[in-house]
Specification:
Belongs to the short-chain dehydrogenases/reductases (SDR) family. The protein is of the alpha/beta class and 262 residues long. It is 46% helix and 14% strand. Strand 1, helix 1 and strand 2 form a beta-alpha-beta unit.
Length: 262
């Protein structure tokens, strides 16, 4: 299936590794030009080099910086001739007990996981609508649907973003101009973020990290953790020309772990 992404420009945040890199690889494989961002210069440049080698027909621009800051966002946006596809993503706040968090911890979580995506959306969707094509995919978390008790900061900030997107996606001036906004809710994917979450959960449960990880795997009907490549493939479809009638949705990718019908 031709996803209709050849020659389009995609801005992919936090793309040097993990789920962000999986999305960048999938979009690059479909012929989209890429602007990738991350805070770590060395890892980002290595990822950019790997993408150029894997997909020689596309252009890849790497912008090192903190996407949660105005300066980081401005630099990333300036590097992209036009943003046809926007993948928002930022490292989640640390796990812990809400009793230990101060106001500054909450503000940092909101800045990274709610306000930064909103600012990027604000900077791009009107131009998308003028061109008659746009795709926004926010990488949030399965915790939006099934909150994790040690991820309170993430639960709160990402749920706020979810509510905002639900309203914006249904504006006729966007949906009626082939601009879609959706959220991908990853469950347990084999990433550095998962390792940190498992470490925190193991301490709380009084188990070794390996034992706790195995218990987590056994709680997933798929009996495994997800991969960045399969996450990226779903993201690429959401960005495709075929997905123009899909907007304002939260797609849960968790190997069947969520037990509900809806």
């Amino acid at each position: 299936m031709d996803l209709g992404l050849t020659g389009r420009w995609a801005l992919v945040c936090a793309a040097s590794k993990g789920l962000g890199r999986g999305c960048a690889e999938a979009l690059g494989a479909e012929g989209a030009n890429l602007v990738i961002t991350a805070r770590g210069e060395a890892t980002l440049q290595a990822t950019a080099a790997a993408l150029r080698q894997a997909y020689p027909g596309i252009e890849v621009r790497a912008v090192a910086g903190d996407i949660t800051t105005p300066e980081g966002r401005a630099a990333a946006l300036a590097a992209c001739p036009q943003v046809d596809v926007l993948i928002t993503n930022a490292g989640g706040p640390p796990p812990g007990d809400f009793r230990d968090w101060a106001r500054d911890d909450w503000i940092a979580a909101l800045d990274a996981n709610m306000l930064t995506p909103i600012e990027l959306i604000k900077a791009t969707v009107d131009a998308m609508a003028e061109r008659g094509f746009g795709r926004v995919v926010n990488i949030t978390s399965a915790a939006v649907k099934a909150p994790n008790d040690v991820l309170g900061l993430s639960n709160g900030a990402r749920t706020g973003l979810t509510g905002f997107v639900a309203g914006l996606a249904r504006q006729p001036r966007l949906a009626g101009r082939n601009v879609t906004l959706n959220n991908l809710l990853p469950g347990a994917f084999d990433t550095d973020r998962l390792a940190k979450t498992l470490a925190a959960g193991a301490v709380k449960a009084g188990l070794s990290q390996d034992a706790f990880a195995e218990r987590r795997r056994q709680g997933i009907p798929a009996q495994r953790f997800g991969t960045a490549a399969e996450f990226g493939a779903i993201c690429a479809f959401l960005c495709s020309q075929q997905a123009g009638y899909l907007t304002g949705q939260n797609l849960l990718l968790d190997g069947g772990a969520y037990p509900g019908t809806f």
